[in-house]
Amino acid sequence: MSTITESDDSEETAKYEESRVYGWLDDRLDLNDEFLGKAFPEDRYASFLLGEVTLFTFIILVLTGTFLGMLYRPGAAATTYEGILAEYAGTEVPLAFASVLRITYDVPMGMFIRMVHHWGAYLFVAAMGLHMLRVFFSGAYRNPRELNWVVGSTLLFLGIGEGFMGYALPFDEYGSTATGIGFTVAGSIPVIGETLTKIIFGGLWPDNAAVILPRMFFYHVFLLPLIIGGLIAVHMLLLIRQKHTEQQGSRDDDAGVSDDDESVVTGVPLVPNQVAVTIIVFLSVFGVLALLAGFFPVQRLPVWGPNDPFSTPSGVAPDWYFMWVFGILKVIPGFIPRGEFVAGVVAPGIIATVLVLWPFIDYERDAVHFTADPIKRPFQTSVGVGAIVFIIMLSVAAMNATVGSLINVETSTASTYLLYLTIIVPIVWGLITYYVLKRGVERRSDSGATPTEDDSDTAAAPSDD
Q: What is the 3-state secondary structure (H, E, C) of the chain?
């Protein structure tokens, strides 16, 4: 596919050459005018910017994480906290816990930067998830972009894993208990579970926290960010090579290109239009995170205190992006053998595999360069809606004790109800979505409208009779 912009290439080149900055850089770097004029398609819903939100959130996480990493001390040995927090001043606490207290309450701007990092981690996973939903429902994963979907799916799982590694670092009672759930699941893998845990983390949690915390710190601040950064680079290189998908029917008449011509991409040029949008998105992302950090600081440490190996606090749950896995653990029937392994490893593994391989399940033989209308893809859209409802129901199931207290039944009874609802409700929503959209496609076909290629699996073209 070639690339065009709304302005003539020669005019763009002349405009760049008039810039002294561009001329100075061009003399030394031999800048490519074609790349500077790369077209970014118009997006009437601004959904294409979710990828940029993810990228900028990752950059902010790296910057804030670098600051925090220079002050954090991984370790479980007892040390005396000598900071300004009166509740723990002069008391012995684990080294990791003391260092996080110092960052939060004693270092200037420490709490703000830590909270930007905290909310940034949430936004990073949320933006990736929303970005993948946009790609899924618009069919932008289809040929030839299957590989980029696989890379994006891998990034999502690595981002979730990165959150797990950071969860344990404060070594507080809440985070330590939630981390222990993950170690229990890993140890439930038959034959190799305990050995794998020792090889990767150095032992069992929290007994070997003195060894585990430095390893998790290394994974969290170096290894996983390095892998994530590399995959983001691969993701962007594939995007540049394959070009953006474009919303059909969004082209400006001034472009002089037919709405169904897939050989070109139309839109605004990278410089200066898209660069200006990018700067606005970055500042907006940082502004939102700063607002959340300033007005909604999470004060978990003084509430829960340092890790206590002799107590198990109630009401502990993982972060929201792990709740669906926690929900499977909560509602797995007791008669299933190796329940923790099935619920914590097998079931999430199946879900992850289907997600990664979806472009090959919903395979397109011919290359497609326009996004699809979800309304005209009943099957794919119903699968997506059912999957979203399924994840929501599992997240609700993770709060089975709360649900039980609300409806005044035992937790075990609530878990049984939630298990049935988790199976039935997504199927019902998927079927309703499929029926409504399929009827819409059939009505458009009956009215004489010409179906698009996306309608081919649900409606035949009207006959000439």
A: CEECCCCCHHHHHHHHHCCHHHHHHHHHHCCCHHHHCCEECCCCCCHHHHHHHHHHHHHHHHHHHHHHHHHCCCCCCEEECCCCCCCCCCCEEEHHHHHHHHHHHCCCCHHHHHHHHHHHHHHHHHHHHHHHHHHHHCCCCCCCCHHHHHHHHHHHHHHHHHHHHHHCCCCEHHHHHHHHHHHHHHHCCCCCHHHHHHHHHCCCCCCCHHHHHHHHHHHHHHHHHHHHHHHHHHHHHHHHHHCCCEECCCCCHHHCCCCCCCCEECCEEHHHHHHHHHHHHHHHHHHHHHHHHHHCCCCHHHHHCECCCCCCCCCCCCCHHHHHHHHHHHHCCCCCCCHHHHHHHHHHHHHHHHHHHHHHHCCCCCCCCEECCHHHCHHHHHHHHHHHHHHHHHHHHCCHHHHHHHCCCCHHHHHHHHHHHHHHHHHHHHHHHHHHHHHHHHHHHHCCCCCCHHHCCCCCCCCCC
